[in-house]
Hints:
Shape: globular
Largest sheet: 4 strands, mixed
Distance between the termini: 37 Å
Order of helices and strands: HHHHHHHHEEEHHE
Strand order of the largest sheet: 1-2-3-4
Amino acid sequence: MSIPNYVKENVTIYFPAIMELIGTNNFNWNEVEEIYNSENIKRIKKLEAQGTDTLRVEANIYDIIVEVKKFNRQAIRLLDFFNKSLFHLNAQLNENEKKLIISNIWNVLTALDKRYLDFFSELAVLNNTILAGEFRLDNIEYELPNGKTIDFRFKSIKDGKFILVEVFNIHLNSEKVDSDDTLVKKFLDGRLIPKINNKKEGLTEDIHFDLMPVLWGRQMT
């Protein structure tokens, strides 16, 4: 008798869009379950060490699913947004492209903190990039001559030229930064410019890539 995989069951019910993207591709759900259970054990030990009934942690996708089960409206809206975005992406990708992004999906489901948002945003940027039907996904984690990687390489349908796209997640968790436009601009400049310089460090030729910043406000904890 097979042992039930509760992670897969919950994702199937509450995050069906990601199941559509996985499709018939190989995906190690047992390892995902092990990673999830390991994190739960760590949380239980922290609770026992603190001697309290509550533990403040960065929410992961499974915490969102738990909150959806509790009819938390914020969680319901967030998960609905995720599903709609990925259902739309699934409709646009061919089977070869879906194979390419299995590692992106893996990261969404195994990042057991707020980093799952960063990996989801890569899929959202992918969706927006191919939306107009001008590009197809050609490669992920494309390696530059300096050994650093760019998230996506796209191929133009019209002329076969390639474009590189790097996704850069920025979390605006400070209420002070969120509410002041000048501080937001200063904050962004301080993050975007070093990011570009870091990617280009060590290059002997000027390689163009598009940096796509994704801004996140305060998340559930």
